[in-house]
Structure formats: C-alpha cells, structure tokens
Design a protein that fits this description.
two-stranded antiparallel ribbon; about 130 residues; Low-density Lipoprotein Receptor; two-stranded antiparallel sheet
C-alpha cells in the first residue's frame, strides 16, 4: 500500500507517521495522532467503566537500584519503573503500527485520556505520578 503526499508523490505506507518528513511537503507527518477522542462525550477524569465491568489494569515493575540507606531515619532511596496497561473502550485508535515495545502516544494525547493515578504514601516526595514518554 502507498501513501500519496499532497504534492502527488507516492511513498510506502510504512513511512507515514514515522516522525521523519518523507514527503517534500511534510504531509506524511500531518494528522498522526494515535487516539481519537470524542470531545463532547469523553471525560478523562472518569475511568473506563462500561456495562458494569471494572477496567483491568496490568501492572509490572522493575527495580533499577536500591541504595542510600539511612538507618537512623529508617529510609532508603530506590529507583524503579512501573509499566501500566489497560484498554479504554471509549477511545478509537488510528495510525497504529507494529511497535515491539507497545503503542506509544504523545504527551498531548496522554494529557487528554484517563490514566490510572498512582499514589506513593510513604515516599519522601509525597504522592505523585510521573510519566516519561
């Protein structure tokens, strides 16, 4: 399959939305959002909860390091990554490509959808959730 640039040039569809301007007019990198959101009905403060079914959230964590022990304060520092995955039936997905590490969305899209809130009540920095895209 091919993609037609606005200037009439045809490119292999695999180069559409790859983050590189392959068309001279850059039309292959326009409208590359992954998630279509209904601005009139989608509320990102509400978790996906359809037909009485609770949304399953898959969680995995990886410890990067453990160190900086303070015995008197009974604290330590640790670094870890937490991966979350879920399916939100309220969203429509477009421009999907096979990516080994999973589907990636941009920061603007991430800020527009519902995301599970993580709370770390016993951390020195208080409760917070950080996303690295």
């Amino acid at each position: 399959m091919e993609f037609s640039c606005w200037d009439g040039t045809c490119l292999d569809l695999s180069v559409r939305c790859n983050g590189i301007d392959d068309c001279f007019d850059s039309s292959d990198e326009i409208d590359c959002q992954v998630v279509l959101i209904s601005k009139s009905s989608y509320k990102n403060e509400n978790p996906p909860f359809l037909s009485g079914q609770i949304t399953q959230i898959n969680v995995s964590s990886y410890i990067d390091y453990i160190g900086s022990f303070d015995r008197s304060a009974m604290t330590f520092r640790a670094g870890f990554d937490i991966d979350l995955s879920w399916f939100d039936k309220r969203l429509k997905y477009v421009n999907l490509k096979h990516i080994k590490s999973g589907m990636k969305i941009g920061r603007e899209e991430m800020n527009s959808i519902w995301v599970p809130r993580l709370i770390f009540t016993n951390s020195l920095d208080g409760e917070r959730t950080l996303f690295h895209l």
